[in-house]
Amino acid sequence: MNPLLCDQVRKDLRHLKLSDMVEALDLCLKEAEQERCGYLAFLSTLLSHQIKGRSQRSIERRIKKAGLIPSMNFETFDWNFQPSLNVEYVKDLAQLDFVANYQPLLILGKSGSGKSHLANAFGIRACEAGYKVAFYTLQSLLKKLYATLADNTTDEIISQITRVDLLIIDALAFIRSKPEYPSLLLDLVRATQQQTALILTSHIGFQEWGEVIGNPSIANAIVDRLFYKACLININPARSYRTEGPHAPKVPQVDTT
Fold first, then answer.
1. Coil, strand or helix: which one is 2?
2. How many other CB atoms sit within 10 Å of the CB of residue 132?
3. 182-232 pLDDT per residue, tens
4. How many alpha carbons lie under 13 Å from residue 220 in its C-beta half-sphere?
5. Is residue 254 situated within a structural domain?
6. What span, in angstroms and rounded, lies between the C-alpha atoms of 27 and 49?
7. Is 46 part of any domain?
8. From CA 24, how far away is CA 30, in angstroms rounded?
């Protein structure tokens, strides 16, 4: 192995911005020497490191842009914690057919049951598959839409939001509502139909949505549209990760003797 030639190759690879090939060069050279690989086999192995590196960085960029938490994925989800969870059904959904078919996915369960983790995990899986994803809490999304009323850009912003392949709206619960919120949410849900897959999590039942968002009739219209072609994960009955999970506060034992 010619050290001067190796240094020149590294320099040229850096100039071409092929950093993964630079990092893998020594290892690939060593393996090629040990296994007496041909030139094309060596080059193919070296190129594969660059391709894998770029692919991983692309996934990481999509996850960051989506606003997802990288650690909340299917690999870190405790499949045995919720006895009522249909694990096989969730894993089938993780194949992302509902994204390709622009279907809503509703995830219901009490607070702390793992809804946000599942929604985030679906988002990460979609990013890994090359889909564009956006993650919002319902409160922050409605606040964003409400701000568009001031300059009449609501339709434009809704169009931007629904330009992704998968829109995740987390925490439909007890929001700080405004009179305009129900109509804004209905407009958004309408815009997703037949063009954007939607995940929505809620720890309250559908019958309570009207009270939460402030308009029962509009809430019913939203539910009707969400249920069209919808998939449903219902974690009920459910345990709470916050109070019963491995990181929950330990209740001190009382000595009764």
1. coil
2. 15
3. 999 999 999 999 899 999 999 888 888 888 888 899 999 999 999 989 999
4. 2
5. no
6. 11
7. yes
8. 10
Domain that holds residue 105: 74-244
E-assigned strand segments in the chain: 104-109, 133-137, 166-172, 197-202, 231-235
| Averaged pLDDT, 59-83 | 96
List the beta bridge partners of residue 201: 107
Judge whether 255 lies within some domain: no
> Quick one: pLDDT at residue 250?
64
Non-local (6+) Cβ contacts of 222 within 8 A are: 182, 185, 186, 189, 209, 213
DSSP code, position 230: -
| Residue 171: per-residue pLDDT | 87
CA separation for the pair 160, 204 (Å, rounded): 29
* pLDDT averaged over every residue in the chain: 91
Spatial separation of the C-alpha atoms in residues 237 and 209, rounded to whole Å: 20
Does any domain span residue 53? yes
The string of DSSP codes covering 234-248 is EE-S---HHHHSTTS
First to last CA, the chain: 77
Band of residue 63 on the pLDDT scale cut at 50, 70, 90: very high
Q: Find all residues with CB under 8 Å of 8, minimum gap 6, and list them.
A: none
The pTM score is 0.86
Q: Which of 252, 249, 253, 242 is nearest to 110 (CA)?
A: 242
In a shared domain, residues 14 and 79 = no
Higher per-residue pLDDT: 103 or 248: 103
The residue among 250, 246, 251, 244 whose CA lies nearest residue 111 is 244
Say how many domains are in the chain. 2
CB contact set of 58 (below 8 Å; sequence gap of 6+): none
